[in-house]
Design brief:
This protein is mainly β. The chain has 2 domains: 191 residues, outer membrane lipoprotein receptor (LolB), chain A; 109 residues, 2-Layer Sandwich (Phosphorylase Kinase, domain 1), CATH 3.30.200. Helix content is 10%, strand content 45%. The protein contains 4 helices and 21 strands. The radius of gyration is 21 Å and the shape is globular.
Amino acid sequence: MAMARRGRTSRAFGAWALVWAIGSAAALAGEPAVLLERMNHALSTLDYEGTFAHWEGGQVQMLRIVHRMKNGVVSERLQSLDGSGREFIRIGSNLTCYLPDKREALVEQMPKGSSLIGTMPVLNKNTERFYRLHEGPRERIDQHLTRLVTVMPRDDYRYGYRLWIDRRGLPLKIQLWDARHGGEVIEQIAFATLKIKPNIPDAAFAPQLSTAGYRWLRNHHTPPPKQGGLVWNALWLPPGFHMATHVAQSMPGTLGPVEHLVYTDGLASVSVFVARHAQRKPAHPAVESAHMGASYVFSTFVDGHRVTAVGEAPARTVRSIADSVRAQPASFPALSGGAFAHSVPPP
């Protein structure tokens, strides 16, 4: 779900009238795939605002989200309510992250179809091969009748989801969970308020802080460089995973551009960053790993480069992908999930 990451394809706002016309009982009936489609449609097309608690790694943060679809352009604003003053404002594909505690503002591009709330499950021909859906009972959350939909992974390479969807198609609670450990909750979003609010003004997407004296950082994406006809890629991917993004970007404190590769199965995703190291053979090329809330981070050293992988996926998945990253000839064919060239993942 990641907070400044991932909503689906934009659609006409007028479909909201149809959602209301269905009625409470009918809107909560139907197959879980229909409920997921209704949810993604509502999140991408409705104008709404709400406050929610985001729980991750034992820490809770309160945030406010404002979302608008106007003339086919998505505008979103995510504000931290914990006193840090951090804001994330997205207009179309442009995202600006205001970080008052660092006196910095970061400007970058958001992937198409993403949302500041996070990744929401979508059932398609690829994902249904690796996840199965289960429709649970009706439950009341803050006086709203909801239907529980559980997205269950078919293997140990990915996490599952639980979503409590109300009659408007909006999720009032979302959980990322680990099926391998008795359904342990990895991350949770629970809305305290969530209201449909048509005609949200442009002023709602203007920063409420002064950026005087801020350092502005712009993350420019360029095609990945070919070093001697070589490009970086993973030699092993879990079943269903594929490369979705491969770009180069500038990052503070790195030597030259950093290659950024994203591998996904449509729900789970792992980002890999490859940065040239100052020393060809550093004295202590340590392997490092850590859990950061719902994300697992793994870093290793390969051929004079630091390879770092981070993803909201089990440690086995993130580490196995990172361990397989190598520089390959540009003509090397792209691997589909489950293919491997040098090893199988560790147990």
